[in-house]
Design a protein that fits this description.
By secondary structure, the chain is an alpha/beta fold. Helices cover 32% and strands 24% of the residues. The chain is built from 13 helices and 16 strands.
Length: 456
């Protein structure tokens, strides 16, 4: 999609937050690695470009840079934190090590208003996270705000702006207004991002791409795969074949819930594969968590591969890949501060001869949930907490067996039920129970017990 705001990622922990803030304004945003060629950026016809923060120093030998010509395209540019320092550095200013870094809240004082700071309180709290600072402005730039350091600069004529703080985080009191000023006031962006339009567009694209072929999807019961399944089913109906593998390591009654919610309610074609004994036998005697992860992951691929071969005429494999997965994976070749590459992206075994279908790959998690509700998935299902791929296999510490899994399923079910009863479930991002490999003395009824210990 074109005519949005491009965010160049320099390894900031907040880069996805910038993208989400802009999409909440109903404007399309896209996050690309900092070293994306200028020609690729220009092909997307961006209304504006944001340079994110990052852990690097512009003075370092291997500093993350952009092509200087970026600033000569007449496209508005906003540099945030490292992005402001980079702008100053490339355009002839100076960046130096600060006497002391700023980490946390700081007081911002506007000394000269501009389009970015229009209708922003003269004094407010902002969020800082930096050590380097701009010590000399480039020619043609003016100082707009300070916080003990140079906090905001601009060259209004060339529509180049910079802020040392992070306007995208909620701690920056007037940050939302500044981003809005950039997106609408400076970039003149149009509201071109609506999830209802996204559903219609994606359904049409799936129909065109798939044609009369069959699609296979590994349905886990999690938010991403479930929303992907319902969206694809809306497009092609019974051409979608879902495989649900019961590893024996899932939440209590997960198999029944998935078959009820998606099989009966949405009339989807779901093959339930009961593989509990197979997984538990492979895990016998294994206590190391990384080993357990690999065993569960490998066995899942084997089971899924076996079942997918039974479906004739299948050309596509659908996955619940979402935008953060894509960002984290594509940035692996960019900033070293990226935390991980994601298992969902490009993770097909070579012997599985399918084309990938990833209808959610442009959406952030909160957008996936909204799409799910638009598609009629019940609220409590699209707002479920994340659940690890290896399931309870890694929430049982040490060796795993059927008894321990059963105890943990019951304990976790009670815990989640209590959170719902007390209206707490959606007030926490994640909540679960872990079973320890130790037993402890307790009292049940009037009797002394010696049982496994569960941690909430």
């Amino acid at each position: 999609m074109n005519n949005g705001i491009i965010i160049l990622d320099f390894g900031s922990q907040y880069n996805q937050l910038i993208g989400r803030r802009i999409r909440e304004m109903e404007v399309y945003s896209e996050i690309l690695p900092f070293n994306t060629p200028l020609s690729v950026i220009l092909d997307k016809k961006p209304k504006g470009i944001i340079l994110s923060g990052g852990p690097s120093s512009v003075n370092a030998e291997n500093a993350h840079l952009v092509e200087k010509e970026l600033y000569e395209q007449g496209i508005p540019v906003l540099g945030i934190c490292y992005g402001m320092q980079l702008t100053a550095h490339l355009l002839g200013g100076k960046v130096a090590k600060g006497e002391k870094g700023e980490y946390g809240k700081a007081h911002l004082e506007i000394v000269k208003e501009n389009e970015l700071l229009k209708n922003v309180d003269q004094n407010s709290i902002v969020w800082m996270s930096h050590f380097d600072e701009v010590s000399q402005l480039p020619v043609g730039f003016e100082l707009n705000a300070k916080s003990g350091v140079i906090a905001s600069i601009s060259n209004p004529e060339k529509k180049i702006y910079g802020v040392q703080f992070h306007p995208e985080v909620s701690h920056s009191e007037e940050g939302g207004k500044m981003i809005e000023n950039f997106v609408f006031g400076i970039c003149q962006s149009e509201k071109n991002w609506k999830l209802t339009n996204y559903i219609e567009k994606t359904v049409a694209e799936i129909k065109e791409k798939v044609g009369d072929n069959k699609v296979i999807l590994g349905l886990s019961g999690g938010v991403d795969s479930s929303v992907a399944a319902v969206l694809i089913h809306k497009a092609i109906g019974d051409q979608l074949n879902c495989i649900f593998v019961d590893t024996g390591l899932l939440r209590k009654d997960e198999d029944k819930k998935v078959m009820e919610n998606y099989g009966k309610h949405f009339h989807m074609n779901i093959k339930l594969v009961e593989a509990s004994e197979r997984f538990l036998s492979k895990l016998a005697g294994i206590g190391d968590p990384e080993q357990k992860r690999k065993i569960i992951g490998n066995e899942f691929v084997h089971v899924f591969d076996e079942e997918s071969k039974k479906i004739e005429g299948a050309k596509f494999l659908a996955q619940g890949t979402i935008y953060p997965d894509v960002i984290e994976s594509q940035s692996v070749n960019g900033p070293s501060a990226v935390i991980k590459s994601h298992h969902n992206v490009g993770g097909l075994p070579e012997e599985m001869d399918f084309e990938l279908l990833e209808p959610l790959r442009e959406l952030f998690k909160d957008e996936v949930r909204k799409v799910g509700e638009e598609l009629g998935i019940p609220h409590e299902l699209v707002y479920r907490h994340p659940f690890p791929g290896p399931g309870l296999g890694i929430r049982v510490l040490g060796e795993v067996d059927a008894e321990k899994v059963k105890i943990l399923q019951e304990a976790d079910d009670i815990f989640i039920e209590e959170l719902y009863k007390n209206d707490l479930y959606e007030k926490v991002s994640q909540a679960f129970v872990v079973l320890l490999p130790v037993k402890s003395v307790g009292v049940m009824g009037d009797e002394r017990t010696y049982e496994y210990t569960a941690v909430v």
